[in-house]
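Worked example

This section walks through a single chain of length 481. The input is the sequence exactly as stored; nothing has been trimmed or padded.
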Amino acid sequence: MNQHKNYEANSLNSNKVLRFLRPLIDDSKQNNDSVYFQYRFRVDHCALLTYLKNNAPVNGKLAYWDLPKENFSFLALGDVAEWTANGPQRFAGTGRRLEQLQSRLSILNESTATTQMPAILFFSSFFHQIAQDSEWDGFSPAKLYLPEILIAKDGETVTICLNYEITGNTNPDSLLSDIQQQEDAFRAFSASTDFSLTDSVVELAPYLNGEKPQWIRAVNRSISSIKDHEIDKVVLAKKSEIDVVSTAPLYDTLRNLRSIYPGCVTFLFREANGKAFFGATPEWLARMHDGILTCDALAGSIGRSENPSVDRQLGQELLESRKNRSEHDFVVQYLENKMQHLADDTRSQDAPTLKKLYNVQHLYTKMTGRLKSGVSPMQVVEQLHPTPAVGGIPSETALDFIRKVEELERGYYAAPMGWISADGDFDFAVGLRSGLLDSETLHLYAGAGIVEGSDPDDEYEELQLKLQPLLNAFQAAPVHE
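Given that input, the structure is written out below as tokens.
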């Protein structure tokens, strides 16, 4: 049984809210167009996964974004406004919607105390411009949305953001009543002393679908194209489908992922139809904070060992691997070229270092620069995606090759996703180490870069390493061929 501290229901400053709302309602009525209002307040504590378990709707749209190493996380519920786009102009179209919203969103803090947290919108997209019929039906090639409720945790500071669409017909009394109910409910939850999650047991059916022979054929075809100088590098993805015999709610999976992979972004994007894309990705496409743009080159992989000496030896082998350095250098050169168009004063490491995760280590190069004036978040995405870490070189030729060879729809896998603030900061990760839960089927996705000198069997073993985070999170047995 939960125990609760004594707390008093918050007394909403109705007059203050009304003074803020009336001009917004008048503006909407005059221009015959919606505007958006955000009311925010702070609470002492809110364990996001516990809230997801106990209070969030079982169905409906939600997003979870967690950087355990940075002690920074979001939980977003529902959507007040959503914009979607398709085709070659999907990023540009989403960017125009972002610009519109930035001028139509007004924020009211509960008190006069300022908060550094900006208004947040969530962004997700497909790897390819246009979707094919697949398990990804119900998702959009590019989407930007403003959630109904956003719980933001930055260190020990927890901010609740309630978003509302304001029209000329908005009833301010009804809106005030909803704010009061939401604030009282969050303060009651914050006062709870029980933030535990119980363990759940998950059972997955073994699968045997001939995926390795299919993978070997695809890799051999790629190597032939590289030898014929049609492409220099291509990243091939593989999908594994597993029947979920019994499953725990996704908060258990997220908890496992954030615990095992604290250096990754643990994420969940669930659509209104219940389909959920989730994972723990180690790779950033781009981050921009205080005017500084950061991009990561993450390509070239090898396993880990529990023996420190063997682990160091594996890392050194990766650093000295001609094949892996070639794969990594393609990504570095691509990003350095793109950064010249996006940022000033660009800098990058002279040589790659190792990024060590729980069961795999990667070659890693970080590059930074000051974002050029007038460059928008969506322009950054449009310029960078897809990098050779998930696509190939030359880019367009590699993308055509991927469509012909892979025999799957990538959807959100290896695609940009993240959040954008109303004042222009953003975090965009690449949807790797990920899966899609669709009814009673778990779709797992992993990829490997193919260059001259690649070995199909070695690449298949690399895929198995990359699938392990999701299998661990589901408490499953190792993958079977």
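What to look for: The chain has eleven helices and 23 strands.
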